[in-house]
């Protein structure tokens, strides 16, 4: 890397993220970002026409990273119910982890995203599509009920919103949040998993198809 | 009712609610409330020791009213799955209705409730218990799976949070919100309803036990 190498979009986004973490969404300016990179604000403006565009790009990049990582799980092999459980646990763990480890930046992202409903809607659609993909695999393998697929991936995403939607972040410090997630999962899996006995789930009447003791 | 009749707690709460609607939670004072009732603020303080206590009491009264009305549905006769659907539809309709018809007061309540986590926790416990009651009836009648009862009423409440939890109020203006609720309900009912065929639900593979066209 030489000094003459042009500034990349990724470098600007990284610097903007750092500035947002430090100064918050209201006080972060394009000049701050440019200064931290040792360039003029004009250079930043060449990539992002407005401060709002820069802020939105930071959040969109963050959402895309979550979606990309989860997409890899959605494509894994193996039983669909187990895969869906891993996928949901990863989503919950990512969102709750960000909120816990970097609460200011998390709140900032949430605030910016509230002004960029298109980004959020796209993100949620992408996630719902990944769930639908898993359900479709499961139906093909005879593990998932076709009627659960008919309800759709978005229904699974919505039914677990309390555990991954940033609007609920204040509730995530509750010591009961993991248990509450397990209970919702147990309920969902009863409907998702194709019964191979009189009852849905492989564990007979008492349980879900996946051990509920699994923590993430 | 004579002029000498003492001021009731209910009259003060009604006046406080009106003041909160008009001035918002930050600007509403005990003096405002007392003035609107034509009494001294000392009279109000005899019932509510602080402004915070008065605000909290208004919200608790509102939550109690919702819980009371839903409790009546939980006690109704008839099939448990249908009753649960009516119960959830009533909850969703009350919360979304308040948010739509009186958005300022709704936001005010939400803000006050955020500072009174005990009131919210109690409210949610009461609601979860009502669902559990319906599930228990359904298990006794052979309509609901025992494993759904094991997941508990709180799981049903949590799985539908997007449609009644005030944290999601901004999403309720979406034209797709009713359809999204129906999809979650379809998924839940697959797990709740005891199968009397190979698939859960009375409508075969395609559907839930309750017509999803029902709007609330």
Automatic annotation (TrEMBL), chains A, B:
The DNA-binding region ranges are: 29-48
Instruction: Give all residue intervals belonging to the HTH tetR-type domain.
Output: 6-66
Q: Which GO terms describe its molecular function?
A: DNA-binding transcription factor activity; transcription cis-regulatory region binding
Q: Which UniProt keywords apply?
A: DNA-binding, Transcription, Transcription regulation
Alphabetical list of InterPro entries matching this protein? DNA-bd_HTH_TetR-type_CS, Homeodomain-like_sf, HTH-type_TetR-like_transc_reg, HTH_TetR, Tet_transcr_reg_TetR-rel_C_sf, TetR_C_27
Name listed for the protein in its UniProt record: TetR family transcriptional regulator
Q: What is the lineage of its organism?
A: Bacteria, Bacillati, Actinomycetota, Actinomycetes, Catenulisporales
């Amino acid at each position: 890397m030489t000094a003459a190498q042009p500034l990349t979009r990724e470098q600007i986004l990284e610097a903007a993220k750092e500035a947002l973490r430090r100064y918050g969404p209201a006080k972060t300016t394009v000049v701050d970002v440019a200064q931290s990179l040792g360039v003029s604000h004009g250079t930043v403006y060449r990539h992002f026409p407005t401060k709002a565009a820069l802020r939105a790009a930071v959040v969109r990049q963050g959402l895309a990273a979550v979606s990309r990582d989860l997409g890899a799980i959605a494509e894994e092999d193996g039983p669909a119910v187990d895969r869906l459980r891993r996928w949901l646990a990863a989503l919950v763990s990512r969102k709750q982890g960000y909120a816990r480890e970097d609460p200011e930046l998390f709140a900032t992202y949430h605030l910016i995203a509230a002004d960029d409903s298109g980004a959020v809607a796209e993100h949620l659609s992408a996630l719902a599509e990944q769930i639908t993909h898993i359900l479709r695999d499961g139906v093909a393998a005879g593990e998932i009920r076709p009627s659960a697929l008919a309800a759709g991936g978005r229904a699974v995403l919505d039914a677990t919103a309390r555990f991954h939607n940033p609007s609920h972040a204040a509730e995530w410090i509750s010591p009961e949040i993991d248990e509450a997630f397990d209970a919702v999962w147990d309920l969902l899996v009863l409907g998702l998993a194709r019964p191979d006995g009189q009852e849905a789930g492989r564990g007979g009447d008492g349980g879900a198809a996946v051990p509920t003791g699994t923590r993430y």
